[in-house]
Amino acid sequence: MRPHVTVNIAMSADGKISTKERRQVKISGNADFVRVDQLKAGCDAIMVGIGTVMADDPSLTVKSEVLQRARVSRGQDENPIRVVIDSRGRIPVNAAVLCRGPGERVICCAEIIDPEVLQSLESCATVIIAGKEEVDLDGLLCQLYVMGVRNLMVEGGGTLLWSMFRMGLVDEMFQYIGNMVIGGSKSPTPADGEGFCLTGPFVKMDLVECVPIDEGVLLHWRMRPPCQVA
Ligand SMILES: NC(=O)c1ccc[n+]([C@@H]2O[C@H](COP(=O)([O-])OP(=O)(O)OC[C@H]3O[C@@H](n4cnc5c(N)ncnc54)[C@H](OP(=O)(O)O)[C@@H]3O)[C@@H](O)[C@H]2O)c1
Q1: Alpha-carbon dihedral 82, 87, 93, 95, rounded to 10 degrees
Q2: What integer best gives the mean pLDDT of the chain?
Q3: Segment 49-80, tens digit of pLDDT
């Protein structure tokens, strides 16, 4: 068993999620910010890759005090469990995701992690070891389910999302498309990594909803079950 997985990503009209320097860029506006905060507040855990932590230093906290209080009144922590995918434990101990706001943190590493690094991480987060050289996402999701995580939000970046899509671990996706062109063949996209070849199997989705928000548009996709892929 694994949690229900919802991807949330913002991209430019030309399909880029940040610039060629891999620096965070504001793609959406205030209304979309509120939507994302609500999505975050409604999930049990929120996950990013270490590339995103190094590039953007996100705190992954719920920003609205009303939504924080609503979580607490439901018996939950103010913030969802924050999960970082980080094979070698590269995360800085002063990363915002580790330091800002109350709540549980999980760093997921692989067996290749240096034992000393592992020891230092264990003092600031729950560490899960899954996989040999990179994180075994299938195994991790099972472990998160055992920890009580039923709804998992994944916020990127493109390398982690590619792995999630390739392994059929995504159930739905909210994709905000902003009114800008970022450009660059090296700028990250919602699914980087190796990519499928001509024969696929491509991940297929059904469009649930398409709504204008701020100066762009929000697409809500539902993944087809793997048996219907292609
Ligand atoms: N617009 C948006 O909504 C949005 C959201 C998030 C991020 N971003 C952008 O995305 C960029 C960062 O993306 P990124 O692709 O560089 O990094 P990422 O996807 O955040 O993290 C990828 C890293 O995770 C680790 N990893 C461990 N096991 C893995 C596995 N099984 N599959 C995939 N990754 C695994 C690898 O590093 P190790 O080998 O060191 O473990 C890998 O390099 C930044 O530019 C950021 O601004 C944009």
Answers
A1: -50
A2: 96
A3: 999 999 999 999 999 999 999 999 999 999 99
* CATH number for 90: 3.40.430.10
105's enclosing H/E stretch is strand 105-109
Range of the domain at 196: 4-228
Q: How many domains does the chain divide into?
A: 1
Which DSSP string do the residues of 6-41 spell out, in sequence order? EEEEEE-TTS-SS-TT------S-HHHHHHHHHHHH
Cα separation, 172 vs 222, whole angstroms? 4
Q: Which residue type sits at 114?
A: D
| Average pLDDT of span 165-184 | 97
Separation of alpha carbons 131 and 128, rounded Å:
10
Is the pLDDT at 229 greater than 50, yes or no? no
Instruction: Tell whether ligand 1 has an atom less than 6 A from the beta carbon of residue 56.
Output: yes
Check residue 230 and give its pLDDT. 40
Residue environment code for 200-211, b if the CB has 16+ CB neighbours within 10 A, otherwise e: eeebebeeeeee
Spacing, Cα 155 to ligand 1 middle (Å): 9
Pocket perturbation via mutation, ligand 1, pick of 6, 24, 160, 161 by most ligand atoms within 8 A of CB: 160
